[in-house]
């Protein structure tokens, strides 16, 4: 089971100004949007056309630099990842949640291994550059 460990950040939704208004997602397109629609806002935010800004930041989704030869896109779309707070410190250490793989990233230059939805990060008491472990597929 592939595992990623390292720093995280958040992404997606109408307030993510780090993404262009027309930015798409690696794992969601018009052909599979219906099966992934629960991760999106009902309407496209004003002034945007890309699915990344339509993501519902309260849902639990994730982006990692997935190895498509080991984890094909279809497998990523049909399974969940387990995300665990491994930041040493408060009582949230070891807390986990399931998340839908939705995109590829973050850019290697960031030094991070995962981008989480703001809602997922909040539920795990994580802030940008805190440490996480991501297992795919999740050990359900």
Largest sheet: 6 strands, mixed, barrel
Total strand segments: 6
Strand content range: 25-35%
Overall pLDDT, averaged?
93
Number of helices: 4
Q: Shape from CA axes?
A: globular
Helices and strands, in N-to-C order? EHHEHEEEHE
End-to-end Cα distance: 12 Å
* Name of the CATH architecture: Beta Barrel
CATH superfamily: RlpA-like domain
CATH class descriptor: Mainly Beta
Strand arrangement across the biggest beta sheet: 1-5-2-4-3-6
Low-confidence regions: none
Supply the number of structural domains. 1
CATH fold type = Barwin-like endoglucanases
Structural class: alpha/beta
Helix content: 10-25%
Features:
Barwin-like endoglucanases; 6-stranded mixed beta barrel; globular; alpha/beta; 140 residues
Layout of helices and strands:
Layout: E1 3-10, H1 33-36, H2 51-54, E2 61-64, H3 73-78, E3 81-85, E4 96-104, E5 112-116, H4 118-123, E6 131-135
Parallel strand pairs: 1-5, 2-4
Antiparallel strand pairs: 1-6, 2-5, 3-4, 3-6
Describe the protein in words.
The chain is α/β, with parallel strands linked by helices and 140 residues long. The protein has one domain: Barwin-like endoglucanases. Helix content is 14%, strand content 26%. It is globular. It starts with a strand and ends in a 5-residue tail after the last strand. The mean pLDDT is 93.
